Amino acid sequence: MNQEEKKETLKETTKSVLLQEDESWGEFIRTIFYAFIIAISFRTFVIQPFSIPSESMLKNLMVGDFLLVSKASYGFSKHSLPFSLPIIPDKIFADDVQRGDVVVFRLPRDPNTYYIKRIVGTPGDKIQVRRGELYLNDKKLPRKQLDDYVREDEYGREERFQRIEETMPSGKTYVTFDISYCPGSMADDTDAFIVPAGHYFAMGDNRDNSQDSRWPSSVGVGYIPEANIIGKAKWITLSFDNYSALWEVWKWFPEERRERFFTTIK
Length: 266
What we know:
Blueprint (H helix, E strand, L loop, with lengths): L2 H43 L1 E5 L13 E6 L5 E2 L13 E2 L9 E6 L2 E12 L4 E5 L2 E4 L2 E2 L2 E10 L5 E10 L5 E6 L14 E2 L4 E5 L20 E2 L3 E11 L23 E2 L2
Antiparallel strand pairs: 1-2, 2-16, 3-4, 5-6, 5-16, 6-14, 7-8, 7-13, 8-9, 10-11, 11-12, 14-15, 16-17
């Protein structure tokens, strides 16, 4: 092989290597793009993770719980999409929300904020709280007093909560917390609410520490439009009691609440 042929062979080899490198980078970028689309689609239409920042659903949900929300439980609206993109008209594949369901929704007055509460009233229901007890369509929900929940706060002082099991007409039961009855308060003695069509009424399980549908939408939640409900809270995956972020691994131990790992939300 003469010198000219060697040069030509070297050029072809170099060109081939460059072409392979270009193809490799292109394949890599395509793979990343497809993975991103799959992840966004899964989060939008199947399962979305959330964490609990407040005690409004104590003790069913606690600060530091990480949970999964089923996005397909009630259908999809624009609020199911990132940034509430107005791509989906009204609601598609809609299914009814049931009394007693724990749902995640976008706050009506600020759709960028997510709330989690328990649905206690569906369209047409009459809801009222009298002396701290919940009435549905003028009938008091059956209640069962359980042992108190006692804990120490961050200053070492004892905190005591009444644990009360409520039962919906469907037979679904769940446990609520109450500190004490406060006569005349907006939480314990409310007006009668008639839930409008296409809306729902929600309350936190920690009844004395939840700003929910008992308050008007200008300061609380008010009635929740059906389209704002994005999914049903289904499972707790992990739980840590030191307010650590999921990625702050060095803060996890020994603060994990292992008894709550991979449990179903009731």
